[in-house]
Amino acid sequence: MTQYPALRLRRTRASAWSRRLHAETVLTPADLIWPLFVTEGDGEEPIASLPGVSRWGLGGIVERAREAAALGIPCVALFPNTPASLRSDDGREALNPDNLMCRAIKAIKDAVPDLGVLTDVALDPYTSHGHDGLVDAAGYVLNDATAAVLTEQALVQAAAGADIVAPSDMMDGRIGLIREALEAGSHANVQIMAYAAKYASGFYGPFRDAVGSRGLLKGDKKTYQMDPANAEEALREVALDLAEGADSVMVKPGLPYLDIIVRVKSEFQVPVFAYQVSGEYAMIEAAAAVGAGDRDTLVLETLLAFKRAGCSGVLTYHAPLAARLLGA
User: Fold this and answer.
1) Predicted TM-score (pTM) above 0.85
2) Closest CA to 77 of 277, 284, 328, 230
3) Residues with catalytic annotation?
4) Residue 309 lies in a domain
5) Which residues sit opposite 37 in a β-bridge?
6) CB atoms within 10 A of CB 248
7) Is residue 43 included in any domain, yes or no?
8) Is the pLDDT of residue 272 over 60?
9) What is the mean pLDDT of the segment spanning 239-251?
10) Domain for residue 7, yes or no?
11) Pick from 173, 115, 157: nearest CA to 165
12) CATH classification of the domain holding 188
């Protein structure tokens, strides 16, 4: 007669209450950050390549902020669709204290003061060439000149009320410059979430539609965003940003880089966030639309994967759906 071991691992899976009791990873609405796109005017502008996601005027953005707070989502992330007439080679509109981003920050903080506001620090929503920084005559993105402008941009956003500034540009040295400027400018409590390992990915297409940079970009971003082949380099990038004063770090995109999330968390034991980017969102929506998978199941399973890999939280366009499912 076969001798079975005393332990049967299926015992704890036999009922729903027991599965909940033994769950090693827990996902809640408090783990979510909701990215929102801001546009001029008062209306809603659906984004064709991101079904279910829209750009919102200031009134709509405030309503989305109220919705986030009601759902238990602790923070929203803002991305502006700057009018074409205000885009320039030097992205000067990024430094305007009355620009679209700053007005959105102020509107949200006035309406929902306890909701966290994360802001994107980069020039691609403001440049006429679609790059994240200043470019030379050959089209190469200039590191130090860009970092100086990004520092001013972060200060403008902090003055408007941003709680977290998130440099997404991947310029070397910008975290230290921004941290120093925030401290000197009486913004010591403004956090920096560094896009520390942002890869030159094919998953960003719908986002570029959302912020109006699709068709503007000249060339690609491979000279400053990371090579998808590299993992050790990601650890060096994270180490630099932490040494310069980042409070948390981000890996972007999310699911294709779960291995990077695990390694960063294991190596540094700091708050790590993932951005489930526009292409990832669009794939889930496309699968659900043709019946290849159940949307709710796919959303929660992928978000749980980020938490299991070591994330403190996730930026996701599915945040309101996930929060409703988790609160049900």
Assistant:
1) yes
2) 277
3) 198, 252
4) yes
5) 55, 79
6) 19
7) yes
8) yes
9) 98
10) no
11) 157
12) 3.20.20.70
